[in-house]
Amino acid sequence: QVQLVESGGGLVQPGGSLRLSCAASGFTFSEYVLAWVRQAPGKGLEWVSSIYRDGTLADSVKRRFTISRDNAKSTVYLEMNSLKIEETAKYYCAGAFPGVWPARTRFEYKYWGPGTQVTVSS
Predict the structure, then answer these.
(1) pLDDT tens figures, 98-111
(2) Helix-strand-coil split of the chain, %, nearest 5
């Protein structure tokens, strides 16, 4: 049974930092591209970052966010710094279909986690 479980969300002040984690099970983690996507209230899904061996980030988060993975722990991380109010959203971890890179759209994801809420507010 495939599972992706995000954690690490919460309330943070503008300019603050959070580290999200996504623990995976039920599939060969190291063989998959993993992505972080987010959905703000009333808005569509927005791709944030993907990683296979190397990571790639959306322009809006470059220089502030870092994606990494630990294949031994079947976990992918998203380190978020200098958070902005408009980045309040539910953040999802997703596993892409085999062979898809960098997996920027919902149609490219085979597995999904339930999401973790990030609220940036003073």
Answers:
(1) 889 999 999 999 99
(2) 5, 50, 45
For 60-103, what is each residue's pLDDT tens digit? 999 999 999 999 999 999 999 999 999 999 999 999 998 899 99
Distance CA 80, CA 19 (A): 6
| Cα–Cα distance, 72 to 3 (Å, whole number) | 16
b/e map of 67-99 (b: 16 or more CB within 10 Å)?
A: bebeeeebbbbbebeebeeebbbbbbbbbbeee
Cα–Cα distance for residue pair 66/57, rounded to 1 Å: 8
Q: How far is Cα 87 from Cα 103, in angstroms, rounded to an integer?
A: 20
